[in-house]
Amino acid sequence: QVQLVESGGGLVQAGGSLRLSCTASGRTFSILPMGWFRQAPGKEREFVAAISRSGGSTYYEDSVKGRFTISRDNAKNTVYLQMNALKPEDTAVYSCATVSGGRAWYPTLGNKYDYWGQGTQVTVSS
Questions:
Q1: Nearest alpha-carbon partner for 121 in 77, 97, 80, 90
Q2: C-beta of residue 102 within 8 angstroms of C-beta of residue 37
Q3: Could you give the maximum distance between any two Cα atoms of the chain, in Å?
């Protein structure tokens, strides 16, 4: 299976910034769309951001628009999530995900993604 590994999480104060990275392991035979999701304690998994194969199309959950930016470096098999102006309500485990090759892409729907990373904890203190 495709393996994804996230990094960059940590503890920051409100208003601070973090940059998350997600790197695909092994050889990739095609460049795939990628998404970021998060899950806070006691809450359902929530869509955060997604990016198309070329990087030309991006999608954001309303609460992070203007604060978070998703980007990718296909030469490095890596997707990034730049998070600025962090709020305590952003505290969650953040996971990256991708879809199987040849499958339709539904950017915001977590149950349509096929491969997931282990997640990285982001904690924002007030």
A1: 90
A2: no
A3: 44
Quote the tokens at residue 17. 């910034």
Residues 13-57 have pLDDT tens digits of: 999 999 999 998 866 656 789 999 999 999 999 999 999 988 999
Residue 47: both structure tokens together: 């869509």
Closest CA to 34 of 5, 62, 65, 10: 5
Alpha-carbon torsion (80, 28, 1, 105), positive or negative:
positive
Phi, psi dihedral angles at 62 (to 5 degrees) = -55, -40
Pairing verdict, β 120-125 and 10-13: parallel
CA 126/CA 124 separation, integer angstroms:
7
